[in-house]
């Protein structure tokens, strides 16, 4: 099965937090997924969006530059460029 990469989502909703610092904006929902490092990008995306329906996981190939802004509705997942979007997640997924 071939998928295009990167897999993007909705427009960024700017915020001044990331990871656990965003917990107050998402009461009762997850904002960090350290257990998903090493999991398939597509599987991690599905898990994140199920755990916190207010965010969308964006899958990018490793090496893509993203401006350093925090988006309250985004979780960035980096996977190997040669196996995007199916490869293992290389970063620690967090909101922001």
TrEMBL record:
SUPFAM superfamilies listed in its UniProt record: CI-2 family of serine protease inhibitors (SSF54654)
UniProt keywords, alphabetically: Protease inhibitor, Serine protease inhibitor
InterPro entries: Prot_inh_pot1, Prot_inh_pot1_sf
Family affiliation: Belongs to the protease inhibitor I13 (potato type I serine protease inhibitor) family.
Protein name in UniProt: Inhibitor of trypsin and hageman factor-like
Organism: Camelina sativa (False flax)
Gene name, Swiss-Prot/TrEMBL: LOC109130596
